[in-house]
Design brief:
heterodimer, A: about 110 residues, mainly beta, about 0% helix, B: 11 strands
């Protein structure tokens, strides 16, 4: 089983619908992240959480919200999806040890908003 | 704004040649730099992680160097194989963005048989 699991892996939805992407991890890491990937733009940070009580906005948080339900679970919500939120979304984790640890990624969730 | 740049955006080499991938960053105050591989439609696989105190890291055919003063890292892949075809991304953790990584846009590599 994967250490970082994202569900759903693929989703097609319509403009205005509420969407939730879920992430769970078995690595025991405190830090979790949501990134978005668009062709030619690389990965951009949406939200990140350093522990259950800590939630922080990344560089492109508008239109998104998150919930850290437990150390192992971090979900991303689009309250009212719009077409320019069509992208590949990645969840990632890292250990707390300062910033010395690397990132571990899930397989990604491909979202299409029509 | 801190930026990470990867040039070229795409690269094609014949099998057996050595690959040289470049990553540059605008601020030398970093915690670490990480190289990833991404296959089409897949997640990112970590290849090498270099701490700011290190000059290079090696794993098998892969070697990554770090020169903070010039803001550059280079990923070398020796004796390339068709299975090395993928997109390679560089990510930097800057000290004033503690715990977050800034990604380059990646270099798409094709190794032809």
């Amino acid at each position: 089983d994967a250490d970082v699991t994202q569900t759903p892996r693929n989703r097609i939805t319509k403009t205005g619908k509420r969407i939730m992407l879920e992430c769970s991890q078995t690595k025991g890491h405190d830090r979790m992240y949501w990134y978005r990937q668009d062709p030619g733009l690389g990965l951009r940070l949406i939200y990140y959480s350093f522990d259950v009580k800590d939630i922080n906005k990344g560089e492109i948080s508008d239109g998104y919200s998150v919930s850290r339900q437990a150390q192992a679970k971090f979900s991303l919500s689009l309250e009212s999806a719009i077409p320019n939120q069509t992208a590949l979304y990645f969840c990632a984790t890292s250990a707390l040890a300062g910033a010395g640890g690397g990132l571990f990624f899930g397989e990604g969730s491909r979202l299409t908003v029509l | 704004k801190q930026e990470v740049t990867q040039i070229p955006a795409a690269l094609s080499v014949p099998e057996g040649e050595n690959l040289v991938l470049n990553c540059s960053f605008t601020d030398s105050a970093i915690y670490n730099l990480q190289w990833f591989r991404q296959d089409p439609g897949k997640g990112l696989t970590s290849l090498l992680l270099i701490q700011s105190s290190q000059r290079e890291q090696t794993s098998g055919r892969l070697n990554a160097s770090l020169d903070k003063s010039s803001g550059r890292s280079t990923l070398y892949i020796a004796a390339s194989q068709p299975g090395d075809s993928a997109t390679y991304l560089c990510a930097v953790s800057f000290t004033d963005s503690w715990g977050k990584l800034q990604f380059g846009a990646g270099t798409q590599v094709v190794v032809t048989p």
